[in-house]
């Protein structure tokens, strides 16, 4: 009899402990709402500490990353917002064009909300970590170098020269790892924009360091030896050393540059005449070098993958580029006005950005209680506009898995349903530069070279960015 009672008590205790454990995050993090307040979004905050990270990682390490959000849709219907616990914090997932628009455009309600673990890697003094007037000041200071038409026009000869050299080099190789080479090319481009001249940075070294940083950005932020996050922190320290060295070299140069982004940052002062400190300059350089070479490299990679996969699209792009080249006076180089004529290629780039989803989500934080779609997002909770879901939702884009550039000509794409660079005051400042680089590469490739994929059916990995696991090897040959 005593044994039966002991087993019963143990069973009840275990069940009680399990139930408390299962509901710990809800008890600890969910606020008590005021009378009349809308309810919290549907969903679950998951298990203590890890929350919903297991299901997130399981989905993004599978062949179907969209299953992460699909599970919410099936379980809670299409409410547009769901609660979860991701990256060590209570989070609301915004999954429709309407809810993403509210979160991304209402700066008075939502500030930048990158997880603290990510800010340590990107830079606490970069755009990822600053808000309000400080963010606007930094954007006013640096954006002209990345999006001003005059600046873009000036970059074209340099970009064209770089890609011509790359294509010629690749054409002499039996096998070229396209993503690796695109990273080199994009790094050279953003390097020239930031520094104007040789900074002493080694492209191979810095690109490999950035790879480690990016591996840690969306990994579990466990700082133990051997983890992705620990390796990322060590890589970030290496970047700090390298960029401080560049900064000091420029500061003590006898003939310092006065026209590049680094000079703008070093010369900038606030309303009180105070300069940016070295840490903030380095954080900004880390952010721009990262976004300007890694994200751009992935955009170009997927653009070329889709062109090689879809012969009809490739032929239309080639026809457009041949027409543009034939209309250009003999001896003149590619210009910004030529790029503006690339209407079909522009649609192909937009479709690439929609399907590839290089950045699946962005991070914000509620500065006050906000009601969205009839649900309360509590003050202090983090919010993730899930851009990938907007782009791949069949209720938003017809046949979203199909690569169809002509959907842009049919005016199928409604406002706020294409958000690869974000929206509002925090729209990626380098979006025009990235698309310009893509146009220039395609122009020179299709007019003079053939590219053959050597393993077109390679498995794709989705973290930290979607890419073929083998970096997409190709063979490039000059067209005779």
UniProtKB/TrEMBL annotation:
PROSITE patterns: CYTOCHROME_P450. Its cofactor is heme. One of its GO terms (molecular function) is oxidoreductase activity, acting on paired donors, with incorporation or reduction of molecular oxygen. Signal peptide: none annotated. Pfam families: p450 (PF00067). Keywords: Heme, Iron, Metal-binding, Monooxygenase, Oxidoreductase. The keyword Ligase does not apply. Heme binds at residue 428. InterPro entries: Cyt_P450, Cyt_P450_CS, Cyt_P450_E_grp-I, Cyt_P450_sf. It comes from the Eukaryota. GO terms for biological process: pollen tube development. Belongs to the cytochrome P450 family. This is Ent-Kaurenoic acid hydroxylase. It comes from Selaginella moellendorffii.
């Amino acid at each position: 009899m005593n044994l039966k009672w002991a087993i019963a008590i143990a069973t009840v205790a275990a069940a009680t402990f399990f139930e408390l454990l299962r509901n710990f995050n809800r008890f600890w993090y969910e606020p008590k709402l005021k009378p009349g307040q809308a309810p919290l979004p549907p969903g679950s905050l998951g298990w203590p500490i890890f929350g919903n990270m297991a299901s997130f990682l399981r989905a993004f390490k599978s062949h179907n990353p969209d299953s992460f959000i699909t599970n919410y849709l099936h379980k809670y219907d299409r409410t547009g917002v769901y609660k979860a616990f991701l990256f060590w914090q209570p989070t609301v997932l915004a999954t429709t064009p309407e809810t993403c628009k509210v979160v991304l455009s209402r700066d008075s309600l939502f500030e930048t909300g990158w997880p603290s673990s990510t800010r340590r890697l990107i830079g606490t003094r970069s755009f990822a970590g600053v808000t309000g007037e400080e963010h606007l000041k930094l954007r006013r200071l640096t954006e002209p170098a990345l999006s001003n038409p005059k600046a873009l026009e000036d970059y074209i000869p340099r970009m064209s020269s770089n890609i011509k050299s790359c294509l010629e080099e690749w054409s002499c190789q039996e096998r070229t790892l396209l993503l690796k080479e695109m990273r080199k090319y994009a790094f050279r481009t953003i390097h020239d924009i930031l520094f104007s001249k040789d900074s002493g940075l080694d492209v191979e070294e810095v690109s490999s360091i950035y790879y480690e940083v990016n591996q840690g950005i969306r990994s579990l932020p466990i700082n133990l030896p051997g983890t992705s996050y620990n390796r990322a922190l060590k890589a970030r320290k290496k970047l700090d050393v390298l960029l401080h060295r560049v900064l000091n070299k420029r500061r003590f140069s006898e003939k310092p540059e006065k026209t590049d982004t680094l000079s703008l940052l070093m010369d900038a002062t606030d309303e009180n005449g105070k300069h940016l400190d070295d840490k903030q300059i380095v954080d900004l350089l880390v952010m721009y070098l990262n976004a300007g070479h890694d994200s751009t490299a992935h955009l170009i990679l997927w653009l070329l993958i889709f062109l090689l996969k879809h012969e009809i699209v490739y032929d239309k792009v080639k026809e457009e580029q041949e027409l543009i080249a034939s209309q250009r006076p003999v001896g003149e180089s590619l210009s910004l006005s030529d790029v503006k004529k690339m209407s079909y290629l522009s649609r192909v780039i937009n479709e690439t950005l929609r399907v590839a989803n290089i950045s699946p989500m962005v991070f914000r934080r509620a500065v006050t209680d906000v009601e969205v779609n009839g649900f309360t997002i509590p003050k202090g909770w983090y919010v993730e506009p899930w851009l990938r879901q907007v782009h791949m939702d069949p209720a938003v884009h017809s046949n979203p898995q199909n690569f169809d550039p002509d959907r842009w000509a049919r005016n199928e794409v409604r406002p706020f349903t294409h958000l690869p660079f974000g929206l509002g005051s925090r729209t990626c400042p380098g979006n025009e530069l990235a698309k310009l680089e893509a146009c220039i590469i395609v122009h020179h490739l299709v007019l003079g070279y053939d590219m053959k994929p050597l393993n077109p059916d390679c498995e794709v990995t989705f973290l930290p960015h979607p890419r073929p696991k083998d970096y997409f090897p190709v063979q490039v040959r000059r067209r005779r």
